[in-house]
Structure formats: C-alpha cells, structure tokens
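User: I'm writing a tutorial on reading structure tokens. Could you give me a worked example: one chain, its sequence, then its tokens, then a sentence or two explaining what the tokens reveal?
Assistant: Sure. Here is the example chain.
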Amino acid sequence: QVQLVESGGDLVQPGGSLRLSCAASGSIFSRSTMGWYRQAPGKQRELVATITRGGTTNYANSVKGRFTISRDNAKNTAYLQMNSLKPEDTAVYYCNMATIFGSVYWGQGTQVTVSS
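And here are its predicted structure tokens:
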C-alpha cells in the first residue's frame, strides 16, 4: 500500500513563495506520474501540475511561470515550488500518484493560505 505525505503548507503573504513536498512510501515512485491538485473552499478539486516518470511536466494555465513541479526518485519525493503567490492560490493542496499499473493514490492534503 502506498502512502503519500504532504508537507510545507503555510500562511504566506501575496508575492511570497512556498515549497511543498510529497514523500511516498513503497517502491513504485520512480514508475509513477506524480501530480499536485488543489481544492479551494466551495470549489472542485483542480489540477495544478504533473510530472511523468520521464520528467515531462504539465501545468494549469493559472500557475504557468510561477509554479515548478519536480521529483527526486532517489528520495521518493515530489515537490511543488510556488512563487509569486496570489490570494487565489489559497487552497488545500493534494499530492497524487498514478502508477503504471493503473492505481491512483492521494495524500491527506496541506493547507496553503495566501493573505496579507
């Protein structure tokens, strides 16, 4: 069973930066696509960014140029570097793993609040 544990969420001022981490258990991290999603109050969960096992990245238009997704297969960890944060980035951020076997796993979420 895979477990995903997010960390790094915090309260930050507009224009600030945060780095989220997602640590995965198990041995299939390197063979999985990792993703970050977010859900704001009263809204549906939405894709933020994904990175394939080969390193190909994809971003939501709303975060392009501000957020960077990366992964360290040696540490079984995915990251989301968030710069130039805006109040509309406030949400619970969830880590997602999609394995080559078709299984999908979610973390418990970490709160990001952007406010002055």
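What the tokens reveal: The mean pLDDT is 97. The longest strand covers residues 91-99.
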